[in-house]
Write a structure and sequence with these properties.
Layout (H helix, E strand, L loop, with lengths): L11 H7 L11 H6 L4 H4 L4 H13 L15 H6 L7 H11 L9 H13 L1 H10 L20 H22 L3 H20 L3 H22 L6 H16 L4 H20 L9 H9 L3 H10 L1 H18 L8 H14 L7 H7 L3 H25 L17 E4 L3 E5 L12 E4 L5
Antiparallel strand pairs: 1-2, 2-3
Helix pairs in contact: 6-9, 7-9, 8-9, 9-10, 9-11, 10-11, 10-12, 11-13, 11-19, 12-19, 13-16, 16-18
Length: 432
């Protein structure tokens, strides 16, 4: 699982051009990668244990084919991708990131003007994206049958549209139009909701990053000198809407497991390098001939995949419980992999590639939920509402709510190094 903030893609497209098994290897196209989404090798397995695992996944609707809709022509994802030229989208996303303030949502006069100019240049796309949000087919169109080769540029399109809304909010805040700024915040959170609902780990984690950006805009709104209790009440309803439609944590990992199933098809086909980032390729090369490592992974694919699927079943089942109760499972997975290291039982693909970031991804999911719950708690208190105080899913403890100098402060949101740093501050409109 790559870090969504700075995503390093596997060398799939180098493999498309050069082949993955040496100079004589056949070229692979995207259709070839989608062919593996049918799981031809696993479907023909003679290992009864793997056959049983596959039968359970099919029954659950969790194969790459089952998670790939047949037609996405009228979907949200199709509409958003049509807004921007494919070759310009990465540059536009990078530019939007440069224009976003690094911490608080505050601009100097020149920075604000640049953000406004960028938004105005792409205002047609912003308004059309708003219309697309109303489509009944909310799918993003990521084709899991392509595994790691699937086109995920729709995630970039969503993030770009959300940042256009952020720059719209910045201009309206500067003009004192808080109603308009709150409308833009609502659109940003709607984009985050659509991302988070996709059974795809990168989409789910990008939803968390998008919500974090949105919270910076929310803070600028509620601390604006023209903010009123009515503005906070409207924002509370929007935030509570996010919590009411919150996706199960398991969904992202069901999608990740489907991509893992696809990965083992490539391993059995001798195409391990197609799954590797540049850094991972260099790491493996330091250990020997990459072709021999790929052959070893191919030889032991059945046992490796069985370990992976059994472990992922535990991870997905654990999502039924709060995150803070899952941490012992992640520790036990790491301990077991360390104990197997250097032995014939070590699962090369699962241990080195597919399971290495499970704990980090689950932590980010829990932190995302905790941030939104903290905002809901702060806004409710600031507008005089009594709401049940939930248990922080990240820490297993209650949030800390205090009143300090006409401010509502919610603490105990983060864990570890974030424990004392993360707080939500909102003006207290219950005070005369």
């Amino acid at each position: 699982m790559a870090d969504p903030a700075v995503k390093t893609l596997p060398l799939i497209f180098a493999c498309l051009l050069l082949g993955c098994g040496g100079e004589s290897a056949p070229r692979r196209g995207l259709d070839d990668f989608e062919h593996f989404g049918a799981l031809p090798y696993l479907s023909a397995t003679r290992d009864a244990r793997l056959a049983d695992e596959l039968a359970r996944i099919v029954e659950e609707g969790g194969t790459p084919e089952q998670l790939t809709p047949a037609d996405d022509a009228e979907s949200l994802g199709a509409a958003l991708l049509a807004l921007f030229p494919e070759d310009r989208l990465p540059r536009l996303v990078a530019r939007s990131e440069e224009l976003m303030p690094p911490a608080e949502f505050r601009f100097d006069p020149v920075g604000l003007q640049h953000a406004i100019a960028f938004r105005r240049k792409h205002d047609r796309q912003r308004l059309e994206a708003r219309e697309a949000l109303q489509r009944p087919q909310r799918r993003l169109g990521i084709r899991l049958v392509g595994g790691f080769a699937a086109d995920t540029s729709v995630i970039d399109a969503v993030r770009l549209c959300a940042r256009l809304e952020a720059f719209q909010a910045a201009e309206q805040l500067d003009e004192g139009d808080l109603d308009g700024a709150l409308d833009a915040v609502g659109r940003m959170l709607a984009f985050a909701e659509r991302l988070g609902a996709k059974k795809h780990l990168d989409a789910r984690l990008h939803a968390a990053y998008l919500r974090a950006e949105t919270m910076a805009v929310m803070h600028a709104v509620v601390t604006h000198h023209s903010a009123t209790g009515e503005h906070l009440q409207a924002l509370l309803q929007t935030v509570q809407g996010q919590l009411h439609t919150w996706p199960d944590d398991a969904g992202a990992w069901i999608g990740e497991r489907a991509i893992g199933l696809h990965a083992y098809e490539l391993v059995r086909d001798g195409a391990l390098p197609a799954l590797l980032t540049e850094e991972e390729i260099e790491d493996f090369k330091r250990e020997g001939d990459l072709r021999l490592i790929a052959a070893a992974a191919q030889r032991h694919a059945d046992d490796d995949q069985l370990y992976y699927l059994e472990t992922m079943r535990q991870v997905i089942r654990a999502c039924e419980k709060p995150y803070h109760t899952r941490r012992p499972l992640f520790d036990s997975i790491e301990d077991e992999l360390q104990q197997r290291w250097g032995s014939p039982e070590y699962p090369l693909v699962a241990g080195r590639l597919l399971l290495k970031d499970v704990a980090a991804g689950q932590t980010l999911q829990a932190r995302d939920r905790a941030n939104v719950e903290a905002w809901a708690l702060a806004l409710a208190a600031a507008t005089g509402q009594t709401v049940p105080q939930p248990i922080n899913p990240l820490t297993g403890k209650r949030y800390q709510l205090t009143r300090d100098d006409a401010l509502i402060v919610v603490a105990c949101i983060g864990a570890g190094r974030d424990a004392d740093r993360l707080r939500v501050y909102v003006p207290d409109f219950t005070q005369p």
